[in-house]
Amino acid sequence: MNVGKNVKKVGDGAFSGCTSMKTVTLPANTNRLGKQVFKGTKKLKTITIKSKKLTNKTIAKNAFKGVSDKVTIKVPKGKKKAYTKLFRKKGLSKKVRIK
Length: 99
Hints:
Order of helices and strands: EEEEEHE
Structural class: alpha/beta
Helix content: 10-25%
Radius of gyration: 12 Å
Strand content: 15-25%
């Protein structure tokens, strides 16, 4: 599933409980993530984040809480280290691969 290129904010629980979604791509314009955006997405395999605008202040406290350990998160070049630290702080399991 590709989120529209003009979407700047992904609200609280936006994809929560989407049991058939396997992939999601967030566009480069995305600058905010709400709480528990991906909670209960059991079949989700890949989250692609094209945005370089995400910060500690623009990601909700538990944004990545409930993400399956089997998910791989793809991030922009040069952001892997910063995003790994940031996403873990926001509830992402240490078992999730970020590349």
